[in-house]
Amino acid sequence: MSHPAVRLVAISEDPLSVAAVLDSLDDPASGGLVLFVGRVRDHDHGRGVTGLSYSAHPHAIDRLRAVCARVAEEYDVSGLSAVHRVGDLAIGDLAVVVATTAGHRGSSFEASRALIDTLKAEVPIWKHQRFVDGTEEWVGAP
């Protein structure tokens, strides 16, 4: 399942590039571009985080492509890109980058919000957090 507005979809062990996402959406007809960058933070629910790792199901990329196509179909966007990192990440590293373009900002804001929310809810990527007290936790794992 594909949609012509879907430009860049990836799950990568390599550091993510905001520039690559923006380049994928270069389009002179788009008046609005909304970008969301999710970074690894140093805390979660009041607990200090030292780092984390992301793991993805082997079919996660297929699910991510399907989510992107569905969001592109449901919203009036001219472009849509989503990339997610897997592997070990440090505090401050980029974990996910999503962006959409549209003729007007409203459509792009709505689509970007739907894209990140749907990605987090439906794409089987799991977070393993390590806390400063030595404990750890899986988030989003089945």
Which helices and strands appear, and what pairs or packs with what?
Elements: E1 6-12, H1 18-24, E2 32-39, E3 43-44, E4 47-56, H2 60-74, E5 79-85, E6 87-89, E7 94-102, H3 105-122, E8 125-131, E9 136-139
Parallel strand pairs: 1-5
Antiparallel strand pairs: 2-7, 3-4, 4-6, 4-8, 5-7, 8-9
Helix pairs in contact: 2-3
Pfam family, one: MoaE
Protein name: Molybdenum cofactor biosynthesis protein MoaE
Describe the 3D structure.
The protein is an alpha+beta fold and 142 residues long. The chain has a single domain (6-139), classed as Molybdopterin biosynthesis MoaE subunit (Aldehyde Oxidoreductase, domain 3, Alpha-Beta Complex), CATH 3.90.1170. The chain has helices at residues 18-24, 60-74, 105-122, and strands spanning 6-12, 32-39, 43-44, 47-56, 79-85, 87-89, 94-102, 125-131, 136-139. The strands form two sheets. Strands 3, 4, 6, 8 and 9 form a five-stranded antiparallel beta sheet that branches. The model has no long low-confidence stretch (mean pLDDT 95).
Tell me the radius of gyration: 15 Å
Helix content: 25-40%
Element-by-element helix/strand order? EHEEEHEEEHEE
Q: Helix tally?
A: 3
Our count of domains comes out at 1
Named at the architecture level, the CATH assignment is Alpha-Beta Complex
First-last Cα distance: 25 Å
Number of strands: 9
Q: Average pLDDT value?
A: 95
Pfam families: MoaE (PF02391)
Organism: Nocardioides vastitatis
InterPro entries: MoaE_sf (IPR036563), Mopterin_biosynth_MoaE (IPR003448)
Protein name: Molybdenum cofactor biosynthesis protein MoaE
